[in-house]
Design a protein that fits this description.
heterodimer, A: mainly alpha, 0% strand, elongated, B: Amino acid/polyamine transporter I, 70% helix, globular
């Protein structure tokens, strides 16, 4: 019985790590792609966009930071409830 | 609340990847076409700002939707949240807004599929193919939600991979780009263009809140909805940035603003056959996936309205074998065909955007009310706690109203018509449901009474005892 519990616990943690890797990987891709695109466009149009570039910095910052905090909350929620709701059975 | 449930409940089989497929499947079409109207208004800088402002708003709304969807676990999505936490008038308005938003989009997608088919096989007629596409997707959704959303998963995945492959090939120098296009089309209409471009910003993400509408059919909604919805949101943010860059460096600014299939046109301009084929296929598949997801979401909204007697309860029947709301699914067909053959599709699509923006005001407001009525954080009431609330809910409302106000330039009459339509719906259903005296059954959901209603109930019971 204890063996079964241990096996289940390790399976749950393995699956949780899978979810974590998926989210972290996508967030890393998001930061990389947004950074690349914004840098390329602002660098090429700096003569025009130099006066209001901070608008882009504010909104991309808001977007990435809120999404990252949101993803951490999703992970925390899954970790808290995974045994209670038997997510990975 | 529900009085005449006709039969069994919806089947609970969906997983996070189905939620992802539903959300991204509906929206990805907006990255293949439509978003480029931002370019006509504000050039590359206006388009970039619209993408970021709308992106920030949708991140906040998707977090609100994740919390509400995983808490209520109901098929109506925004409609059910408004019904439970705001009131019947707002619920009916949102339910109708969601229905209109998705069914108009389904009609538009089916027409584009027919046009693509005609461009490949010129002997085909557009109208019969449109009809065939709508009928086929209705049949798939009639047979079962798992089959419909598994199909969506594969179609959407192929369309998204096409964008990713094209982007990395371009970024690593496989494709010849034109950086000078960025400066040439930077800001054609001056600073006012930056603001005007906002009205088409939602095209990049319009409909992602629909991912939470399959909560009632999820095996574990408290995991599937937040995980699928956030993964979908990140996918769209990545796709939007890649699309904007690819099109801006491959298509001259003056033609990008009026292009029908900008991504396909960008692939054509690259001159590499594999990308032309991949993005052509992606354009076709994303239209099919979007129309498919729209049938699913619009039927769930109609089903939820029917279940609570806002419209005839005849539509709330669940198929005994396939466990789908089959009458609501079939009913999407004549309405979508009506939209498709109306001949005023651009107006219908604008109405769809306005309907979506109305939802983006009421979804965060539902969350604010939910937090006030049920402040407890227990696994039964709130298994997923959205961060930074209620501040991001207020901020999302402010951005949605700002974008809505920009529609006044160019779409004044659509805006006025939408306000009148939803205003009438609000007052009609508020009045009708006040007289029918139906109350939410919190115990059926396993929830306690909302904050503030305990004292009212005790007072009512005391008056009742006194009368006896």
């Amino acid at each position: 019985m204890e063996m079964n519990n241990q096996a289940m616990e390790s399976k749950y943690h393995r699956k949780l790590n899978g979810d974590t890797v998926l989210i972290v990987g996508m967030l890393a891709l998001l930061v990389g792609v947004e950074g690349f695109v914004i840098y390329k466009i602002l660098a090429e149009t700096w003569e025009i966009s130099g006066g209001f570039f901070y608008l882009y910095v504010i909104f991309v910052g808001l977007m990435v930071v809120i999404e990252a905090i949101g993803c951490l909350s999703v992970r925390k929620s899954i970790k808290t409830h995974m045994f209670e709701f038997r997510y990975y059975d | 609340m529900s009085e005449k449930h006709e039969s069994t409940s919806l089947v609970k089989t969906l997983r996070p990847f189905h939620v992802w497929a539903l959300g991204v499947g509906i929206v990805l079409v907006g990255e293949y076409m439509g978003w480029n109207f931002t370019f006509a208004k504000g050039g590359v800088l206006g388009s970039l700002l619209a993408m970021l402002v709308a992106g920030a708003m949708y991140v906040m709304i998707s977090l609100c939707a994740s919390e509400l969807g995983s808490a209520t676990k109901l098929a109506g999505g925004p409609y059910d949240w408004a019904r439970l936490f705001i009131g019947p008038g707002a619920a009916a308005s949102v339910g109708l807004a969601v229905y209109m938003e998705y069914i108009a989009l389904e009609a538009a997608d089916a027409i584009v599929v027919a046009f693509i088919a005609k461009s490949i096989f010129p002997e085909l007629q557009v109208f019969p193919v449109t009809l065939l596409v709508i009928a086929l997707l209705t049949f798939i959704n009639y047979r079962g939600v798992v089959a419909a959303l598994t199909l969506n998963f594969f179609l959407t995945m192929i369309a998204f991979i096409a964008i990713v492959v094209f982007f990395f090939a371009t970024a690593f120098g496989t494709v010849n780009i034109h950086p000078e296009y960025l400066f040439q089309g930077a800001l054609p209409n001056g600073m006012i263009g930056l603001f005007a471009a906002l009205q088409f910003g939602p095209w990049f993400y319009l409909g992602i809140e629909g991912a939470a509408m399959c909560a009632e059919e999820c095996k574990h909604p408290s995991r599937a909805v937040p995980l699928g919805q956030q993964a979908g949101m990140i996918t769209l943010l990545i796709g939007a940035a890649m699309t904007l860059y690819l099109c801006a460096v491959l298509i001259p600014a003056d033609t990008l603003g009026v292009s029908v299939y900008p991504l396909f046109e960008a692939a054509n301009n690259s001159g590499i056959f594999i990308f032309i084929a991949l993005l052509g296929l992606g354009t076709f598949l994303t239209c099919v996936a979007s129309a498919n997801g729209c049938v699913c979401d619009s039927s769930r909204s109609w089903f939820a309205l029917s279940r609570d007697n806002y419209v005839s309860s005849w539509f709330s029947a669940v198929h005994p074998r396939y466990n789908t709301p089959y009458r609501a699914v079939i009913f999407t067909m004549p309405v979508a065909i009506g939209f498709a053959f109306s001949g005023f599709l651009d107006q219908v699509i604008t109405f769809s955007i306005i309907s979506g923006l109305l939802c983006y005001v009421l979804i965060p407001f539902s969350l604010i009310r939910f937090r006030k009525l049920f402040p407890q954080t227990t696994s039964k009431i709130r298994p997923f706690v959205s961060p930074l609330q209620p501040y991001i809910a207020y901020f999302a409302i402010a951005i949605a109203i700002t974008i809505l106000s920009t529609l006044f330039w160019g779409y004044k009459y659509n805006l006025i018509f939408a306000f009148v339509f939803y205003g009438v719906a609000y007052f009609y259903f508020s009045h009708r449901h006040k007289s029918s005296n139906i109350e939410n059954d919190w115990a059926e959901m396993g929830w306690p009474l909302p904050k503030g209603s305990e004292s009212v109930k005790v007072k009512t019971e005391a008056i009742g005892v006194g009368d006896e």
